[in-house]
Amino acid sequence: MQKSSITIASKLPGIEQSIFSVMTALATKHNAINLAQGFPDFNCPPRLIELVNKYMLEGKNQYAAMPGILPLREKIAEKANRLYGSNYEPVNEITITAGGTQAIYTAISAVVKEKDEVIIFEPGYDSYLPAILINKGAPKYVQLSPPNYKIDWDQVKKLVNYRTKLIIINTPHNPSGMVFTADDMKQLQKIVAKTDIMVLSDEVYEHIIFDGRKHESVCKYPDLASRAFVVFSFGKTYHTTGWKMGYVLAPKEMTEEFRKVYQYSMFSAMTPLQYAFNNMLDDVEHYMQLPDFYQKKRDIFLEAIKGSRFKPIPCEGTYFQCLDYSGISNENDRKMAEILTKQYGIASIPTSVFYHDKVDHKILRFCFAKGEETLKEAGEKLSKI
């Protein structure tokens, strides 16, 4: 095809190709162990595959209701009540989405208008900023620093003004592995009290949390829940990231605005998957054992790198382990990630890409949602550096 003569004024002129695509392609090219992109290398529960097949064969292959099938929404309401004591109404306050990222984009698009200010914490998941910019919002940044990545709520308070429309939080936090405490939630609650500020809470790793910690969901705090979109992921919970299935909890008035945007972007999520997940939610044991399941993997990886020169950053949740390489090299983290992939056969993500101004703390992020042998092999490679 000939080169287009059309000149396009980009809506995202400063946005590059996703680092996940770049590092995965590099890992493939050099036959490296891919601990870069965040997905498991093991399969989902066999029963889930059986259920999806069952509902496909039964003909559940046409459009679902726009908000999602009601039995699944009812099951989600029961789960949220059991875990967090919340009381979401299935018909008007729960929406099934085509993944967590799509839910985040839709929520931002539903409420952020030109010049509205949105507070985001960095390092942060890379989909937040583009969604703000494409809706002409004005991002305001709170920088978190290693090793603990704790939030300075006084700094947040200073950023709040009459233009502040939304605060985006993420717990357990990607990429750092930090987990919000009850005090964090109370501090946030104080800041937004008596304002019209909304909260977007990204809680896709709700069940991947370690060392006896409890997930402090926004759903547990009525004053926050009354102003929040809370995003969850079936993909993270059931090892099915490629299926792109999630859901959003929000008060009726906010859900109405969310669905106005959603119905003209996705309209509905995959029907047979919804029926399958409806059945899977009956197995409470599956998601209740995930903390131990992933903590074991984290600990196997940490044991495997014990003899290396990398310094682990505390990982309280998610399936990502950050490693400080400042005692090994002065290379910038992007270059270091390339060296590890090309020369040592192990791919990671440089954490500077999670900052808008590319702050380099000499830290790389590794995904440990992998089999035991893969993690041990990765540890051997890292220990040779």
What are the defining features of this structure?
single chain, alpha/beta, Aspartate Aminotransferase, domain 2, 2 domains, 4-stranded antiparallel sheet, 13 strands, 40% helix
SSE sequence, one letter per element? HEHHHEHEHEHEHEHEHEHHHHEEHEEEH
Q: DSSP strand (E) fraction?
A: 5-15%
Low-confidence stretches: none
State the CATH topology of the largest domain: Aspartate Aminotransferase, domain 2
Strand order, largest beta sheet:
2-8-7-6-5-3-4
Query: How would you characterize the largest beta sheet?
Result: 7 strands, mixed
List the domain count as a whole number.
2
Structural class: alpha/beta
Give the averaged pLDDT, no decimals.
Answer: 96
Total beta-strand segments = 13
CATH class of the largest domain: Alpha Beta
Which architecture name of the largest domain does CATH use?
3-Layer(aba) Sandwich
**Overall 3D form:** globular
Distance between the termini: 46 Å
What share of the residues lie within helices? 25-40%
How would you name the CATH homologous superfamily of the largest domain?
Type I PLP-dependent aspartate aminotransferase-like (Major domain)
Alpha-carbon Rg, integer? 21 Å
Count up the helices. 16
What does this 3D model show about the protein?
The protein is an alpha/beta fold and 385 residues long. The protein folds into two domains: 19-44 and 288-383, Aspartate Aminotransferase, domain 1 (Alpha-Beta Complex); 62-283, Aspartate Aminotransferase, domain 2 (3-Layer(aba) Sandwich). Helix content is 40%, strand content 15%. The protein is built from 16 helices and 13 strands. The chain has helices spanning 19-29, 46-57, 70-84, 90-93, 100-111, 128-134, 153-159, 182-192, 222-225, 234-238, 252-262, 271-280, 284-288, 290-304, 333-344, 372-383; strands at residues 33-34, 94-97, 117-122, 138-143, 164-170, 198-202, 228-233, 246-249, 311-312, 320-324, 346-347, 349-350, 363-367. The strands form three sheets. Strands 2-8-7-6-5-3-4 form a seven-stranded mixed sheet, with helices on both faces. It has a four-stranded antiparallel sheet with strand order 9-10-13-12. Strands 1-11 form a two-stranded parallel ribbon. Helix 8 links the parallel strand 5 and strand 6. Helix 3 packs parallel to helix 12, helix 5 (100-111) crosses helix 11 and helix 14 (290-304) packs parallel to helix 16 (372-383). It starts with 18 loop residues before the first helix and ends with a helix.
